[in-house]
Design a protein that fits this description.
The protein has no helices and 14 strands. The protein is mostly beta strands and 304 residues long. The protein has one domain: monomeric porin ompg (Porin, Beta Barrel), CATH 2.40.160.40. It has a twelve-stranded antiparallel β-barrel with strand order 1-2-3-6-7-8-9-10-11-12-13-14. A hairpin with a 7-residue loop joins strand 9 and strand 10.
């Protein structure tokens, strides 16, 4: 191995996969440099998979990974949006995953700092709610490159109300996620149910996300994604017929039955075995937009 802390011997790949470096100890090139996280190596037997980019909080990668991921979101808000009017939202966030073993991991999926600029409420800044959870790999089939995972995420109410965070009494989200290599490409799909602790302050919803990546070169992969959210029960906090999507829960009173569907296209580039950068542009497919007129999401991921 490239360093004494790499623990490359933990890889138990049974067969090679497409352009994979999963069993190459060079995959640990950077892990020596952060002495805490290198004690919890990722499951490197599914290294050809690309982490989903859009819907970054709730589109869950089914692998057991140790990683640090920086996220930048720039979201445009339509001029016809009630109360807010035309504007934009920026999010600067950091995600963290710690693989305790090849099946169990701890994930920190939501945090960060928000800047909001709209004609209706002016310029605002504030912190996001924090979302923490666990993930367990129920099926880990290395030979067929198939994974099935499940878990639970809790979103706290520590954020700033100035940027529509911090309301309610927390949200619990049980979820499932699958991953499968298809030819030289990879499919990841996840779905979950947002259950607020205070159903008057926040709405309830089911979400789903589908991700597909396909290699263009040994380092570059094309990415296509689909995201949807179906509101199953309205809140009572605001007399509105729109909601906030994946990042904001307004608790609007007239959203039950609403359905928002978006798609995202972009690419992922592997700078080396541990470091990758990705970006997608997202836009609505459904007539209903709510707060998302369009969105650009960029991520930088360091995997151990």
């Amino acid at each position: 191995p490239s360093g004494s802390g790499c623990n490359c011997s933990t890889c138990t790949c049974q067969s090679p996969v497409y352009s994979s470096e999963a069993c190459d100890c060079n995959a640990c090139t950077l892990c020596d440099r952060i002495p805490l996280l290198n004690k919890f190596p990722s499951d490197r037997c599914f290294d050809d998979f690309v982490m989903p980019v859009s819907n970054p909080v709730w589109s869950i990668d089914p692998r057991s990974l140790t990683y640090v991921r920086g996220i930048f979101i720039n979201q445009m808000i339509d001029a016809q949006t009630p109360v807010l009017g035309a504007g934009d939202l920026q999010v600067y966030a950091l995600q963290l995953g710690i693989a305790l073993n090849e099946r169990l991991s701890i994930i920190a999926v939501k945090d960060g700092y928000n800047t909001l600029q709209t004609r209706g409420v002016g310029n605002r800044t504030g912190w996001s709610d924090i979302g923490l959870g666990v993930k367990y790999v129920l099926i880990r089939d290395v030979e067929n490159q198939f994974l099935l995972s499940g878990g639970l995420i809790y979103e706290a109410t520590n954020g700033s109300s100035r940027v529509f965070q911090g309301n309610g009494d927390g949200v619990w989200t049980p979820y499932v996620s699958i991953g499968k290599q298809i030819g030289s490409g990879h499919l990841i799909a996840s779905s979950g149910y947002h259950v607020p602790g205070d159903t008057a302050e926040e709405s309830q919803s089911i979400y789903y996300s589908i991700h597909y990546d396909h290699p263009v070169t040994s380092k570059l992969s094309a990415v296509a994604e689909l995201n949807g959210i179906v509101y199953t029960k309205s809140g009572q906090a605001l007399p509105l017929s729109i909601e906030g999507g994946d990042w904001i829960n307004l608790g609007s009173s007239s959203v039950a039955g609403n359905n928002v569907v978006t798609t995202a296209v972009g690419a992922n580039y592997r700078l080396n075995s541990c470091l990758s950068v990705a970006g997608v542009w997202e836009f609505p497919l459904s007539n209903r937009k709510d707060l998302l007129d369009s969105r650009t999401t960029v991520t930088l991921t360091l995997q151990f």
